[in-house]
Specification:
The structure holds two protein chains of two kinds.
Chain A (H helix, E strand, L loop, with lengths): L3 E3 L3 E5 L4 E7 L6 E7 L6 E7 L4 E3 L3 E6 L4 E6 L8 E8 L6 E3 L3 E6 L1
Chain B lengths: L3 E4 L2 E4 L5 E7 L5 E7 L5 E9 L2 E4 L6 E3 L9 E3 L8 E8 L7 E2 L3 E5 L1
Parallel strand pairs in B: 2-11
Antiparallel strand pairs in B: 1-3, 3-8, 4-5, 4-9, 5-6, 7-8, 9-10, 9-11
The chains are: A mainly beta, B mainly beta.
Chain lengths: 112, 112
């Protein structure tokens, strides 16, 4: 069936380096994508979103890239900090917009 | 605004017991939803509501009931708890079903 998934379950980066977290989706009709950050013991927190009519969207230290040709989504974090350590989920909104489908998550570990 | 609140934070039940997980939001959001999160997995949608008096099933609805008598509240009921329902439960809300969802802090439920 249609699904959203992630390539890497764990990503370890050095403090100050840039991080790239990837996500593949299979529903070509999805038109809205969201990245969430989840710290231990907390609920998912919205980071950034992008609609299918865009290829790139930037926030504060974060950039989301959408490649609709290969159905790939990525989250780039610039100058990664210890506070960025968390699990990151990508999610897609389906055609009807009733359900948010989540990927399995990638754990980002920042080494000092 | 308190945002999305959930009670209790932790709960231990015996098999066969019933209980209600509470969720409330003060943002006047129409759309509310319940997810469960199991270790190593993403969030899976249990039930959702697009407005007061309207509820619908998500991906994993079996064993759970919901109601939406007011815009603010969206309780999740377990009629007869089973060990398979041991999980962390998150409530989320958004302005409408196509908008970004905001999550509560979660309820950690253990069924013995």
């Amino acid at each position: 069936g249609e699904s959203v998934g992630l390539h890497l379950p764990t990503l370890s980066v050095q403090e100050g380096d840039n991080s790239i977290i990837n996500c593949a989706y299979s529903n070509s009709a999805s038109d809205y994508f969201i990245w969430y950050k989840q710290e231990s013991g907390k609920g998912p927190q919205f980071i950034i979103d992008i609609r299918s009519n865009m290829d790139k969207r930037q926030g504060q230290r974060v950039t989301v890239l959408l490649n609709k040709t290969v159905k790939h989504l990525s989250l780039q974090i610039a100058a990664t900090q210890p506070g960025d350590s968390a699990v990151y989920f990508c999610a897609e909104n389906n055609n009807a917009g009733n359900m948010l489908t989540f990927g399995g998550g990638t754990r980002l570990m920042v080494k000092p | 605004n308190a945002g999305v609140t959930q009670t209790p934070k932790f709960q231990v039940l015996k098999t066969g017991q019933s209980m209600t997980l509470q969720c409330a939001q003060d943002m006047n959001h129409e759309y509310m939803s319940w997810y469960r999160q199991d270790p190593g997995m993403g969030l899976r949608l249990i039930h959702y509501s697009v407005g007061a008096g309207i509820t619908d099933q998500g991906e994993v609805p079996n064993g759970y009931n919901v109601s939406r008598s007011t815009t603010e509240d969206f309780p999740l009921r377990l009629l007869s708890a089973a060990p398979s329902q041991t999980s962390v439960y998150f409530c989320a809300s958004s302005y409408n079903r196509a908008d970004t969802q905001y999550f509560g802090p979660g309820t950690r439920l253990t069924v013995l």
